[in-house]
Amino acid sequence: MQNEKLHPGVPYLQEQLRKGKISRREFIRYAVLLGTSLATASTLAAVPQPATEFTTEAAVKSAPRKAVTPVRGGTLKIASRVHKVTHPAQFSWVAPSNQLRQVAEYLTQTDENNITHPLLLEKWEASEDLKTWTLYLRKGIKHNNGDEFNADDVVFTFGQWLDEDVGSSMLGLMSYLQPENIEKVDDYTVRLYLDRPEIAVPEHLFHYPALVLNHRTFEGDFLKAPHGTGPYTLVEYSEGGRVLLKRREDYWQKGEDGKPLPYLDAMEWIDMGEDFTAWMAAIRAGEVDVLDMGDLGGIDAYLGLKDDPNVALLQAATAQVRVLRMRVDMEPWSDNNVRMALKLCQNREKIMNLAYFGQGLLGADFHVYPKHPEYCEKPIPKYDPERAKQLLAEAGYPDGLEVNLAVGTGWPDVVSYAEVLKEDAAAAGFKININTMPNAQYWEKWTEVDLGITPWTHRPLGTMVLNLGYTADADGNPVPWNETRWVDDEFNQLLIQANGTLDVEERRKIFCDLEQIMMDRGPIGIAWWQNIHIPFRKGVHGVPPHPTAYALFNQVWKEKA
């Protein structure tokens, strides 16, 4: 700690902590984002590391387990979907990132407490004005083909993210960075010169499409040259079939026994289709060890497995959410009165209870989670079909309006959401036709349909998700994941201001305005924020309690039968 250089913002955060304006958890989180080591941040906060928000369902646990030493060997079998993949930066599903994050890795890693740690980075430093970020790479790491990991890989990967032709969601997330403002200082140092201040750069580097590529071998299709720094090599990738991974012998991280990780010999990810009952049957029968919930997060796992003595469930409140989204560049959703009318037809408590058995938190019509540090509390809008009917009449639909709502059938709670909305919106004059389709088909057109319900995964900061889904690029065009095409100049300027505001209270004031704009003229409705449940078999150890259900499986191991 004595030799560690502290960002000038850290003493300010300490003062905020002393005055009780931020929590110890928030202090540690932001101090680490500013480049402070976790150990130093914890010491400065005078508290131990914060406890995880995850709990394990007592009902599915047998007697308390004794501390045991990891055992090497065995194959972990995971139920999942196996999608078509080419460029990792184009991922819109979590599942392929979970599979291929075992082969390639990220510069940083955000844990279950929303604290971001260096991974392929050794550390980072931010300038006082948060516009210059220096990234220091770990040395001595090799890709699985023997190539050395270095700054050329990082510069190349950033270039892919920021290439408009690639179309990565990273382009919208990192709209503050231009390709020409990435400097290779030396073989293990990269410097970023931002267009504007940004506090969350390290968290952005863990966005799930942000896998670091081997600049020597990557030519647009990762499966043709699956070279990365991760603990496994890719043996087989069969779309709709399986992914087979084999452990590396020379991985850079060590286990408890001092030998290279991972503990497992292999991992097999098995495509089990969209019928979740088959997934549950497989884990009950011991045919698979873990269910990959990264793209699901549904209530079925909790209801179907909570009483199975051989299955444990990790549970947490998260920012995972189902977003009722309307494309504002298409009629009738170009009219804010129509958008407001549909949002008023959400009977939120009823929707959460029927679609998700009450396992979550009620939401308002803005994409900021109640546990995000910058969240500004707003009243939950009431179900008001009479006001909705009046707004439809003002929009020119006095006799009501017929609309089509696209939903994926692989998310039963989404279908239930749609069914409840259809029933309750009828009183306002909406006739909703529910257009069901397989999840894969929904993801093919999720940015194209005029009205849909899209699952969004957990993000640790409110600024992060707003940058991903509700902004425009430098030319004023919606960023790749702006599925609603909603661009609001006042909103964008406030969000830019929030991105560079270190003071949590000041950022929260900005978010009060951001949230109100989304409620008053925004393109989305949010009925509830949902808990997630991660199921795994007894005898499997080290499954991480991550709110995004990311498969951070480097230290997972299995008891021998």
Structure description:
It is a single chain. This protein has 17 helices and 20 strands. The protein has 561 residues and is α+β, with helices and mostly antiparallel strands. The protein has four domains: 37 residues, no CATH class; 156 residues, 3-Layer(aba) Sandwich (D-Maltodextrin-Binding Protein, domain 2); 111 residues, Dipeptide-binding Protein, Domain 1 (Dipeptide-binding Protein, domain 1, Alpha-Beta Complex); 214 residues, Roll (Dipeptide-binding Protein, domain 3). The strands form six sheets. Strands 1, 13, 14, 17 and 18 form a five-stranded antiparallel sheet that branches. Strand 9 and strand 10 form a beta hairpin. Helix 1 packs antiparallel against helix 2, helix 11 packs antiparallel against helix 13 and helix 16 runs antiparallel to helix 17. It is globular and about 70 Å long.
User: CATH homologous superfamily of the largest domain?
Assistant: Dipeptide-binding Protein, Domain 3
Number of strands: 20
| Radius of gyration, whole Å | 23 Å
Percentage of β-strand residues: 15-25%
Descriptive terms for the model:
4 domains, 5-stranded antiparallel beta sheet, D-Maltodextrin-Binding Protein, domain 2, 5-stranded mixed beta sheet, alpha+beta, 17 helices, 28% helix, 561 residues, Dipeptide-binding Protein, domain 1
What's this entry about, in short?
The protein is of the alpha+beta class and 561 residues long.
